[in-house]
TrEMBL record:
PANTHER family per record: DIHYDRO-HEME D1 DEHYDROGENASE, PROTEIN NIRF
Coiled coil: none
Protein's UniProt name: Periplasmic protein
Protein source organism: Trabulsiella odontotermitis
Signal recorded as keyword: yes
Protein backbone atom coordinates (compact mmCIF):
# COMPACT_ATOMS: atom_id res chain seq x y z
CA UNK A 1 0.00 0.00 0.00
CA UNK A 2 2.82 2.41 0.80
CA UNK A 3 4.36 1.99 -2.67
CA UNK A 4 0.99 2.44 -4.33
CA UNK A 5 0.28 5.58 -2.36
CA UNK A 6 3.65 7.11 -3.23
CA UNK A 7 3.07 6.32 -6.88
CA UNK A 8 -0.27 8.12 -6.87
CA UNK A 9 0.62 11.00 -4.57
CA UNK A 10 -0.08 13.25 -7.52
CA UNK A 11 -3.59 11.85 -7.87
CA UNK A 12 -4.39 12.25 -4.20
CA UNK A 13 -3.24 15.85 -3.93
CA UNK A 14 -4.87 17.14 -7.12
CA UNK A 15 -8.52 17.74 -7.86
CA UNK A 16 -10.47 15.10 -9.58
CA UNK A 17 -12.59 16.72 -11.48
CA UNK A 18 -16.21 22.01 -16.57
CA UNK A 19 -20.93 36.19 -22.00
CA UNK A 20 -21.65 38.00 -24.51
CA UNK A 21 -18.71 40.24 -23.77
CA UNK A 22 -15.38 40.00 -25.53
CA UNK A 23 -12.45 38.83 -23.36
CA UNK A 24 -9.69 41.32 -22.66
CA UNK A 25 -6.46 41.02 -24.63
CA UNK A 26 -4.34 41.84 -21.60
CA UNK A 27 -2.36 39.07 -19.93
CA UNK A 28 -2.00 40.77 -16.56
CA UNK A 29 -4.07 39.67 -13.58
CA UNK A 30 -6.98 41.83 -12.47
CA UNK A 31 -8.67 39.69 -9.83
CA UNK A 32 -9.37 41.44 -6.54
CA UNK A 33 -9.72 39.99 -3.04
CA UNK A 34 -13.25 39.30 -1.86
CA UNK A 35 -14.65 42.12 0.22
CA UNK A 36 -16.60 39.90 2.57
CA UNK A 37 -17.24 36.31 3.45
CA UNK A 38 -20.45 34.68 2.30
CA UNK A 39 -23.07 34.32 5.08
CA UNK A 40 -23.25 30.87 6.65
CA UNK A 41 -26.92 30.55 5.68
CA UNK A 42 -25.73 29.93 2.12
CA UNK A 43 -23.90 26.76 3.19
CA UNK A 44 -25.02 23.22 3.97
CA UNK A 45 -22.11 21.04 5.04
CA UNK A 46 -22.00 17.36 5.88
CA UNK A 47 -19.06 15.28 7.14
CA UNK A 48 -19.44 12.09 5.15
CA UNK A 49 -16.45 9.75 4.85
CA UNK A 50 -12.74 9.49 4.18
CA UNK A 51 -11.37 9.72 0.67
CA UNK A 52 -14.00 11.84 -1.08
CA UNK A 53 -13.16 12.98 -4.58
CA UNK A 54 -15.38 13.75 -7.59
CA UNK A 55 -19.17 14.11 -7.76
CA UNK A 56 -21.90 13.75 -10.39
CA UNK A 57 -25.49 14.96 -10.41
CA UNK A 58 -28.23 12.85 -11.93
CA UNK A 59 -29.74 14.40 -15.08
CA UNK A 60 -33.03 14.90 -13.23
CA UNK A 61 -31.22 16.62 -10.36
CA UNK A 62 -32.61 14.32 -7.68
CA UNK A 63 -29.37 12.57 -6.69
CA UNK A 64 -25.80 13.66 -6.02
CA UNK A 65 -23.27 10.82 -6.40
CA UNK A 66 -19.94 11.09 -4.59
CA UNK A 67 -16.93 8.90 -5.34
CA UNK A 68 -14.99 7.74 -2.28
CA UNK A 69 -11.72 5.89 -1.97
CA UNK A 70 -12.46 5.53 1.78
CA UNK A 71 -9.38 5.21 4.02
CA UNK A 72 -5.86 4.47 2.77
CA UNK A 73 -4.68 2.79 5.97
CA UNK A 74 -5.93 -0.76 6.57
CA UNK A 75 -9.10 -0.15 4.53
CA UNK A 76 -9.85 -2.17 1.42
CA UNK A 77 -12.23 -0.99 -1.28
CA UNK A 78 -14.29 2.16 -1.56
CA UNK A 79 -17.80 3.55 -1.81
CA UNK A 80 -20.09 5.52 -4.06
CA UNK A 81 -22.56 7.57 -2.02
CA UNK A 82 -25.96 8.70 -3.29
CA UNK A 83 -27.06 11.90 -1.54
CA UNK A 84 -30.12 14.13 -1.59
CA UNK A 85 -28.83 17.30 -3.34
CA UNK A 86 -31.02 19.55 -1.18
CA UNK A 87 -30.19 18.14 2.26
CA UNK A 88 -27.05 16.02 1.60
CA UNK A 89 -28.70 13.12 3.44
CA UNK A 90 -27.75 9.63 2.28
CA UNK A 91 -30.20 8.03 -0.14
CA UNK A 92 -28.06 4.99 -0.95
CA UNK A 93 -24.53 3.62 -1.07
CA UNK A 94 -22.52 1.20 -3.19
CA UNK A 95 -19.69 -0.76 -1.60
CA UNK A 96 -16.91 -1.44 -4.12
CA UNK A 97 -13.87 -3.69 -3.84
CA UNK A 98 -11.69 -1.02 -5.49
CA UNK A 99 -11.20 2.62 -4.54
CA UNK A 100 -13.04 5.34 -6.48
CA UNK A 101 -11.80 8.73 -7.61
CA UNK A 102 -13.09 10.49 -10.77
CA UNK A 103 -16.67 10.15 -11.97
CA UNK A 104 -18.95 10.62 -15.00
CA UNK A 105 -22.66 9.89 -15.47
CA UNK A 106 -24.52 9.05 -18.67
CA UNK A 107 -27.11 11.53 -20.05
CA UNK A 108 -29.90 9.06 -19.18
CA UNK A 109 -28.59 8.74 -15.61
CA UNK A 110 -28.49 4.95 -15.76
CA UNK A 111 -24.74 4.42 -15.51
CA UNK A 112 -21.94 5.89 -13.44
CA UNK A 113 -18.34 5.53 -14.58
CA UNK A 114 -15.61 5.79 -11.93
CA UNK A 115 -11.83 5.54 -12.10
CA UNK A 116 -10.09 3.05 -9.84
CA UNK A 117 -6.79 4.89 -9.80
CA UNK A 118 -4.74 2.68 -7.47
CA UNK A 119 -5.55 -0.38 -9.60
CA UNK A 120 -5.30 1.34 -12.98
CA UNK A 121 -8.87 0.72 -14.07
CA UNK A 122 -12.43 1.95 -14.48
CA UNK A 123 -15.80 0.57 -13.35
CA UNK A 124 -19.36 1.01 -14.60
CA UNK A 125 -22.07 1.12 -11.93
CA UNK A 126 -25.79 0.60 -12.53
CA UNK A 127 -27.58 3.45 -10.73
CA UNK A 128 -30.81 1.44 -10.50
CA UNK A 129 -29.37 -1.11 -8.05
CA UNK A 130 -25.89 0.28 -7.24
CA UNK A 131 -24.12 -2.82 -8.59
CA UNK A 132 -20.84 -2.79 -10.50
CA UNK A 133 -21.86 -4.16 -13.90
CA UNK A 134 -18.56 -3.96 -15.77
CA UNK A 135 -14.88 -3.22 -15.20
CA UNK A 136 -11.73 -2.68 -17.23
CA UNK A 137 -8.23 -2.93 -15.78
CA UNK A 138 -5.53 -1.51 -18.01
CA UNK A 139 -2.38 -3.54 -18.65
CA UNK A 140 0.26 -0.80 -18.41
CA UNK A 141 2.79 -0.96 -15.58
CA UNK A 142 5.49 1.45 -14.48
CA UNK A 143 9.13 0.64 -13.71
CA UNK A 144 8.12 -0.62 -10.26
CA UNK A 145 5.53 -2.97 -11.73
CA UNK A 146 2.60 -0.89 -10.48
CA UNK A 147 -0.44 0.10 -12.60
CA UNK A 148 -0.58 3.48 -14.29
CA UNK A 149 -2.91 5.69 -12.28
CA UNK A 150 -6.24 6.22 -14.05
CA UNK A 151 -6.99 9.83 -13.11
CA UNK A 152 -9.61 11.78 -15.03
CA UNK A 153 -12.44 10.23 -17.06
CA UNK A 154 -14.47 11.95 -19.78
CA UNK A 155 -17.62 10.62 -21.45
CA UNK A 156 -18.16 11.83 -25.01
CA UNK A 157 -20.97 10.10 -26.87
CA UNK A 158 -20.34 6.37 -26.64
CA UNK A 159 -16.65 6.80 -25.84
CA UNK A 160 -14.74 7.17 -22.59
CA UNK A 161 -11.38 8.93 -22.46
CA UNK A 162 -9.23 8.09 -19.43
CA UNK A 163 -5.98 9.90 -18.61
CA UNK A 164 -3.00 7.97 -17.25
CA UNK A 165 -0.78 9.45 -14.55
CA UNK A 166 2.50 8.13 -15.92
CA UNK A 167 5.71 9.32 -17.54
CA UNK A 168 5.31 9.07 -20.46
CA UNK A 169 1.53 9.41 -20.16
CA UNK A 170 -1.25 8.27 -22.45
CA UNK A 171 -5.02 8.42 -22.87
CA UNK A 172 -7.03 5.22 -22.99
CA UNK A 173 -9.97 5.28 -25.41
CA UNK A 174 -12.75 2.94 -24.25
CA UNK A 175 -16.12 1.85 -25.64
CA UNK A 176 -18.57 3.16 -23.02
CA UNK A 177 -21.16 0.45 -23.76
CA UNK A 178 -18.89 -2.59 -23.54
CA UNK A 179 -15.96 -1.19 -21.52
CA UNK A 180 -13.60 -2.63 -24.12
CA UNK A 181 -10.36 -0.81 -24.88
CA UNK A 182 -10.52 0.66 -28.39
CA UNK A 183 -7.12 2.32 -28.68
CA UNK A 184 -4.49 4.41 -26.89
CA UNK A 185 -3.50 8.01 -27.57
CA UNK A 186 0.24 8.08 -26.93
CA UNK A 187 2.92 10.78 -26.85
CA UNK A 188 0.83 12.90 -24.46
CA UNK A 189 3.65 14.19 -22.26
CA UNK A 190 4.07 13.62 -18.54
CA UNK A 191 1.15 12.88 -16.16
CA UNK A 192 -2.09 13.18 -18.09
CA UNK A 193 -4.43 15.25 -15.91
CA UNK A 194 -7.48 17.24 -17.09
CA UNK A 195 -9.75 16.27 -19.99
CA UNK A 196 -12.41 18.39 -21.69
CA UNK A 197 -14.49 18.12 -24.88
CA UNK A 198 -15.66 21.27 -26.66
CA UNK A 199 -18.86 21.17 -28.70
CA UNK A 200 -17.80 24.48 -30.23
CA UNK A 201 -14.58 23.19 -31.77
CA UNK A 202 -15.30 19.46 -31.90
CA UNK A 203 -11.98 18.80 -30.19
CA UNK A 204 -10.74 17.11 -27.03
CA UNK A 205 -8.44 19.15 -24.79
CA UNK A 206 -5.99 17.41 -22.47
CA UNK A 207 -3.75 18.99 -19.81
CA UNK A 208 -0.52 17.45 -18.59
CA UNK A 209 2.36 17.81 -16.16
CA UNK A 210 4.66 18.99 -18.94
CA UNK A 211 2.82 22.32 -18.98
CA UNK A 212 0.97 21.47 -22.19
CA UNK A 213 -2.56 21.55 -23.51
CA UNK A 214 -3.05 18.95 -26.23
CA UNK A 215 -5.72 19.48 -28.89
CA UNK A 216 -6.98 16.10 -30.07
CA UNK A 217 -9.31 15.19 -32.93
CA UNK A 218 -11.69 12.55 -31.49
CA UNK A 219 -12.55 11.28 -34.97
CA UNK A 220 -9.06 9.86 -35.47
CA UNK A 221 -7.60 10.31 -31.95
CA UNK A 222 -4.66 12.29 -33.27
CA UNK A 223 -2.92 15.12 -31.43
CA UNK A 224 -3.30 18.10 -33.78
CA UNK A 225 -1.78 20.85 -31.65
CA UNK A 226 0.38 21.16 -28.55
CA UNK A 227 0.10 24.44 -26.66
CA UNK A 228 2.53 25.49 -23.95
CA UNK A 229 0.84 28.64 -22.60
CA UNK A 230 3.49 29.41 -19.96
CA UNK A 231 6.38 28.70 -22.30
CA UNK A 232 9.38 27.15 -20.59
CA UNK A 233 8.21 28.13 -17.11
CA UNK A 234 7.56 25.06 -14.91
CA UNK A 235 3.85 24.19 -15.01
CA UNK A 236 1.67 21.26 -14.05
CA UNK A 237 -1.58 22.08 -15.82
CA UNK A 238 -4.51 20.43 -14.16
CA UNK A 239 -8.24 21.02 -14.66
CA UNK A 240 -10.20 22.55 -17.53
CA UNK A 241 -13.47 24.43 -18.10
CA UNK A 242 -14.94 26.32 -21.05
CA UNK A 243 -17.02 29.39 -21.79
CA UNK A 244 -18.48 28.30 -25.13
CA UNK A 245 -20.01 31.70 -25.92
CA UNK A 246 -16.68 33.52 -25.94
CA UNK A 247 -14.35 30.65 -26.80
CA UNK A 248 -12.38 30.83 -23.57
CA UNK A 249 -10.68 27.81 -22.01
CA UNK A 250 -9.88 28.03 -18.28
CA UNK A 251 -6.90 26.01 -17.02
CA UNK A 252 -5.63 25.65 -13.44
CA UNK A 253 -2.18 24.95 -12.01
CA UNK A 254 -1.97 24.18 -8.29
CA UNK A 255 1.60 22.89 -8.22
CA UNK A 256 4.09 25.03 -10.11
CA UNK A 257 2.60 28.30 -11.33
CA UNK A 258 -0.34 28.34 -8.88
CA UNK A 259 -2.58 30.26 -11.23
CA UNK A 260 -5.59 30.06 -13.52
CA UNK A 261 -5.01 30.68 -17.22
CA UNK A 262 -7.63 32.00 -19.63
CA UNK A 263 -6.85 30.77 -23.15
CA UNK A 264 -8.37 31.29 -26.57
CA UNK A 265 -9.80 27.82 -27.23
CA UNK A 266 -9.04 28.13 -30.96
CA UNK A 267 -5.42 29.28 -30.82
CA UNK A 268 -4.13 28.62 -27.31
CA UNK A 269 -3.22 32.30 -26.88
CA UNK A 270 -3.16 33.52 -23.28
CA UNK A 271 -5.98 36.02 -22.82
CA UNK A 272 -5.50 36.50 -19.09
CA UNK A 273 -3.52 35.03 -16.20
CA UNK A 274 -5.48 35.15 -12.95
CA UNK A 275 -3.20 35.42 -9.94
CA UNK A 276 -5.87 34.74 -7.35
CA UNK A 277 -3.69 32.21 -5.55
CA UNK A 278 -3.51 28.44 -5.73
CA UNK A 279 -6.06 27.00 -8.14
CA UNK A 280 -7.32 23.43 -8.23
CA UNK A 281 -10.75 22.72 -9.71
CA UNK A 282 -12.43 25.21 -12.05
CA UNK A 283 -15.98 25.55 -13.39
CA UNK A 284 -17.67 28.09 -15.63
CA UNK A 285 -21.33 28.93 -14.96
CA UNK A 286 -23.04 30.34 -18.08
CA UNK A 287 -26.29 30.95 -16.17
CA UNK A 288 -24.64 33.41 -13.78
CA UNK A 289 -21.59 34.27 -15.89
CA UNK A 290 -19.25 33.28 -13.08
CA UNK A 291 -16.06 31.27 -12.71
CA UNK A 292 -15.57 29.04 -9.65
CA UNK A 293 -12.13 27.99 -8.39
CA UNK A 294 -11.29 25.75 -5.46
CA UNK A 295 -8.13 26.61 -3.55
CA UNK A 296 -6.74 23.58 -1.78
CA UNK A 297 -3.91 25.39 0.00
CA UNK A 298 -5.90 28.47 1.01
CA UNK A 299 -9.00 26.52 2.06
CA UNK A 300 -11.31 28.69 -0.04
CA UNK A 301 -13.69 28.54 -2.98
CA UNK A 302 -13.87 31.68 -5.10
CA UNK A 303 -16.59 33.05 -7.35
CA UNK A 304 -15.25 35.39 -10.04
CA UNK A 305 -17.07 37.71 -12.40
CA UNK A 306 -16.39 36.08 -15.77
CA UNK A 307 -16.09 39.41 -17.60
CA UNK A 308 -13.92 41.46 -15.26
CA UNK A 309 -12.24 38.49 -13.51
CA UNK A 310 -12.84 40.15 -10.13
CA UNK A 311 -13.67 38.07 -7.05
CA UNK A 312 -17.38 38.40 -6.20
CA UNK A 313 -17.52 35.99 -3.27
CA UNK A 314 -15.19 33.86 -1.21
CA UNK A 315 -16.26 30.88 0.88
CA UNK A 316 -13.98 29.68 3.68
CA UNK A 317 -14.11 25.85 3.50
CA UNK A 318 -11.05 24.56 5.34
CA UNK A 319 -8.97 22.56 5.29
CA UNK A 320 -8.81 21.53 1.59
CA UNK A 321 -11.62 22.24 -0.90
CA UNK A 322 -11.27 19.80 -3.77
CA UNK A 323 -13.77 18.96 -6.52
CA UNK A 324 -16.64 21.12 -7.80
CA UNK A 325 -20.00 20.25 -9.38
CA UNK A 326 -22.69 22.64 -10.58
CA UNK A 327 -26.46 22.10 -10.69
CA UNK A 328 -28.17 22.20 -14.09
CA UNK A 329 -29.90 25.49 -13.31
CA UNK A 330 -26.60 27.06 -12.29
CA UNK A 331 -27.83 28.15 -8.86
CA UNK A 332 -26.13 25.55 -6.62
CA UNK A 333 -22.47 24.62 -6.30
CA UNK A 334 -21.31 21.40 -4.62
CA UNK A 335 -17.80 20.99 -3.17
CA UNK A 336 -15.87 18.10 -1.66
CA UNK A 337 -13.62 19.20 1.21
CA UNK A 338 -10.70 16.98 2.15
CA UNK A 339 -8.81 16.46 5.39
CA UNK A 340 -4.99 16.40 5.47
CA UNK A 341 -3.15 13.08 5.55
CA UNK A 342 -1.14 11.88 8.51
CA UNK A 343 2.27 10.27 7.99
CA UNK A 344 0.75 6.79 8.20
CA UNK A 345 -1.71 7.61 5.35
CA UNK A 346 -4.65 7.98 7.73
CA UNK A 347 -6.57 11.27 7.80
CA UNK A 348 -7.44 13.64 10.61
CA UNK A 349 -11.17 13.01 10.15
CA UNK A 350 -13.87 12.42 7.53
CA UNK A 351 -14.02 14.49 4.36
CA UNK A 352 -17.09 16.64 3.75
CA UNK A 353 -19.59 17.55 1.06
CA UNK A 354 -20.72 21.18 0.92
CA UNK A 355 -23.76 22.70 -0.81
CA UNK A 356 -23.45 26.39 -1.68
CA UNK A 357 -26.54 28.41 -2.57
CA UNK A 358 -25.41 30.87 -5.23
CA UNK A 359 -28.58 32.96 -5.20
CA UNK A 360 -27.82 34.79 -1.94
Amino acid sequence: MKMQLSTLALVLTMALSGCATQPSSSTSATAQPAVASTPSTDIVKRSLAEGLYEMALSPTGDALYVASAEGFKDVQGGMVYKLDPATLKTLGATHTDLKNFAMQITPDGKTLYVTNSLDGGISAINTADGKVKARLLFSERNEKGLPYGARQILLHGDTLYVGAVADPALIWVVDANTLKLKTRIKNTGKWMTGLHYSDQTGRLYAANGSGEILVINPRNNRVEQRWKPLGEKPALLLNLAEDADTGRLFVTDNSKAKTTLVLDIHTGKVIKQLDVGDSLSVLFNPKRHEIYISQRDSGKVLSLDATRYTVKKSWDLPPHPNSLTLSADGQTLFVTVKQPFNKDHSTKGPDSVVRLDLTH
